[in-house]
Amino acid sequence: MGRYIDDILQPGEKVLYSTNAHWIFYLPAIGAWIVAAGLLAASQMFAGGSLAWGGLALAAIAALFALYKMLTAWFHRWTTETDVTNLRVVHKTGFIKRRTFEMSLDKVESVDVNQSILGRLMNYGDVTVRGVGEGAETIRTIAAPLDFRNHITAR
Q1: Number of H helices, E strands in the chain
Q2: Domain check: are 69 and 98 in the same one?
Q3: pLDDT-derived band of residue 155, with 50, 70 and 90 as boundaries?
Q4: β-strand partners of 111
């Protein structure tokens, strides 16, 4: 399966900038892996007792939850594409149920970036693209939102 943008490029159209969902989507999985490791270490302190088995069971549940969160974060990042070409802005999410947003650069009225404090530190945020007569579309939690905005507004 190739990239969506490669399938829809028009003749003479070039990709100027590509970004993706930020790795912060992995944060719940990282936290769950830490909890699973902590529970596993705690269960080793109680050799052979019911507390050891309970700790192992809780560690296994936390590890399964962490694996689930890791796979869903990976799948979200794998199925999300955000690109700027020399003609338009393209954003695609989804695998089977696909949702796309495309706007001609000539129709872009403004590009707003919203970043939290953590977003500024980790370089992610939400970008809202407003179009003339086309409404607004918010692209959530993308990496390097200021670079993305700059590639849209620089002409």
Answers
A1: 5, 7
A2: no
A3: low
A4: 129
